[in-house]
Amino acid sequence: MKWKLGLTVIILIIFGAWYLISSFSKTPTSFELAYALYTNSSTQKDALPIFKRLSDSGDVVSTAYLVSNNMKNADAETQQKNQLLAKKIFLPLTKLACNNNTHAQDRLGYFYYKGYGTNQNFNEAFHWYLQAAEADLSSAQNNLGKLYEEGAGVAKNIGEAMKWYEKAVNQNHTLAQINLGLLYMDQENYSEAMKCFQQAGKNGENYGEHNIGVMYERGLGVSQDYVEAMKWYQIAASKGNADSQGNIGYLYSQGYGVSQSDSEAFLWFKKAAEQGSAAAQNSLGVSYRLGQGVKRNYCTAVKWYKKAAEQGNADAQYNLGCMYAEGLGVCHNNVIALQWFKKAAEQGNSNAQTNLGAFYALGLGTEKNMDESIKWTKKAASQGNMTAISNLTKEGAYYIVSKFYQ
Questions:
Q1: Is the pLDDT of residue 290 over 90?
Q2: Integer Cα distance of 171 and 221 in angstroms
Q3: Strand ranges (DSSP E) for 9-72?
Q4: What is the DSSP string of 165-205?
Q5: 358: in domain
Q6: CA 203 to CA 138: how far, in whole Å?
Q7: How far is C-alpha 75 from the chain's CA centre?
Q8: Is the per-residue pLDDT at 155 higher than 70?
């Protein structure tokens, strides 16, 4: 009987040792942990040192994750460096993908989607995402949903997008929770959208917290509450969410939920702008243009307008056009002003459409063209732009150039 008891103790000791070793093997250097951290934008930075150690040990997929991260908002030199690295690992990554490594398939799809290490090819991106998604990899399911949402490499299909997002959500993929919530917002199903954002928020995902703030600010599915919106924006902003930082600046500028303060608005716009938020860069430009919360400086206003305009922000494109039209912070140049007005007008900015119509009518920066003038002025007028409506007379006289800053 004693020997049986002794054997039982030995077995328990061996099992306990095995359990400890197994637990110890799942250290913060494991790929699985890095992957889990990377799928949440609030913890992505914590995944990078782990991926770096694994990459230094020759792990190709970890290197692919590093390339994906390093290319975000990168300058030209960093982009070139990482493109070379992407080209170097493209073949071994493809080999792993062909051998059914789902993480390699997902990253290869992302490389094709972005054009990293190869020519951009949405069809190939779809092919590799589908392979990994059908093998139940949550990040690939989320990425496949994005292709269906955008109609990239496959016919646009919101139903299919939601289906794949839902599969990823069922695996607690936080970015899929955000993407699914945004589609519910588009469908004005605010209760389901809020559920998705709250689920992401519970996971510490700052975009979930940010979007909860948006719901409260706009009164979507909940009573409009600027104080509650500010609370959620501050939570997300404390984690570095640039959109929330910019929105906090907006609330301060308007005095919504807080005491109005141009100086506080300026500080928050600056935080967000320095992180690359185009909307905040435009707002910061407005602050410098009008001298709100900071000493008026037209040159600095132009600098921030340009940063936002080059990212495609229509308001900044319009504002930059105004600076060239008025010669503020730059040499007066109607040709360049016209170019920026046109870029903004093509995105639906009614003030830019109004100015574009006036420029064509007056021959500013271009030859007179009343057909173009009428076309753009009507577009602006159809959006309720009062200046455009005033310009749209029976005689077709278009002469008022808007100098309203957004």
A1: yes
A2: 26
A3: none
A4: HHHHHTTT-HHHHHHHHHHHHHTT-HHHHHHHHHHHHHTT-
A5: yes
A6: 15
A7: 17
A8: yes
